[in-house]
Amino acid sequence: MKVRGAIMLNSFRAVHLSPARTRYGPRKRLNLRSIKDRTNVKDETAMAHAMLDFVGDAVLATDTCANITYMNTAAETLTGFSRKEAQGRPMEEVFRVIDVTSRVKRANLAQHVMEFGAPVELHNSAVLRARHGRELAIEDAASPLRNAKGEIIGAMVKFHDARFSAETTARMAYRAQHDSLTGLLNRYAFEERFTQAAALAQRHEKKMVMLFIDLNNFKEVNDTLGHAVGDEILQALGSRLLGCVRATDHVCRHGGDEFVVLLSDLAEHEQAFAVVDKVRESAAELLRQQGHWETLTVSVGISLFPNDGETLEALLPHADAAMYRVKTETKRVSGGSQALNL
């Protein structure tokens, strides 16, 4: 057979045959486009499978009969079935799910989304009965699979271990409300706690006291001994402050070397003085224990709720101003906002 010409097309050789006739009729042009298209589909499928193996969620896909056509590595791990074992089997044989409360077998999620033509959002009321009887709390969701014409050709189900999700959610919630160095409330969480405590105080005609605490000479110690020592000091002081208050009180790292304490649910403001004395003694003991911390002192400014204000925006400046006054004074200032040098 005579080849008139040839060119390279990507990795395929496109061959054009002479149009001359043969005893079997006119020669036909060999069309390799369909071969290339099929190869591209295989490449895209392989890439999609690699991407699904990379994600953290377990993923499985079914055909319109809810038989498994694909399962990623995470799904293999959670179900206990290999991809080869699961291929072609009914999804309910591999993805066996019961309700967490009733322990009743749950409806086939793939069939459900194909029947209604709409996805099911993530929910966490399911238990996966994996291979060999192992049970695992999961969160799962599903969606119908459609072709280019919009026709449903199967379903995709994703799921993951609910324990990790709960742990991650709790960890993120904690980090959003707490200072990363000391573990104390951050300013945003403290504001929420103040709002709640103030509402209760007004309802029950209670009083509150706010302490604004500053660590004197901290910058010099931090610059001289290094940031690691500075961090250690802040952590130690934060821990001491927590030990001086009740579970119903709130301690916040306001920023840098400043701390704010809210003493709530007080019958009289004078009740706060015992806590202030406790803070003074605890801080002094801490700073004495470490020889290189002996140059540090603590100043505290006090504001009274509702006398000095009923909002955080009103009380913080009072306590802050009182704290700065005490940096140059060594006596307790009577009335309204008060200050102490510890």
Task: Provide an overview of this structure.
This is PAS domain S-box-containing protein/diguanylate cyclase (GGDEF) domain-containing protein. Its cofactor is Mg(2+). One of its GO terms (molecular function) is catalytic activity. With 342 residues, the chain is α+β, with helices and mostly antiparallel strands. It has 3 domains: 29 residues, no CATH class; 127 residues, 2-Layer Sandwich (Beta-Lactamase); 164 residues, Alpha-Beta Plaits (2-Layer Sandwich). The chain is built from 11 helices and 15 strands. The strands form 4 sheets. A 6-stranded antiparallel β-sheet has the order 6-5-10-9-8-7. Strand 5 and strand 6 form a beta hairpin. Helix 8 packs across helix 9. The protein is elongated and about 80 Å long. The termini are far apart. The N terminus and C terminus are likely disordered.
Radius of gyration: 35 Å
Individual helix count: 11
CATH class of the largest domain: Alpha Beta
Distance between the termini: 103 Å
CATH architecture of the largest domain: 2-Layer Sandwich
Number of domains: 3
Total number of β-strand segments?
Answer: 15
The mean pLDDT is 83
**What can be said about the biggest beta sheet?**
6 strands, antiparallel
**Helical content (DSSP H or I, runs of 4+):** 40-55%
| Coarse morphology | elongated
Low-confidence segments, ≥5 residues, pLDDT <50? Answer: 1-33, 330-342
**And the CATH topology of the largest domain?**
Alpha-Beta Plaits
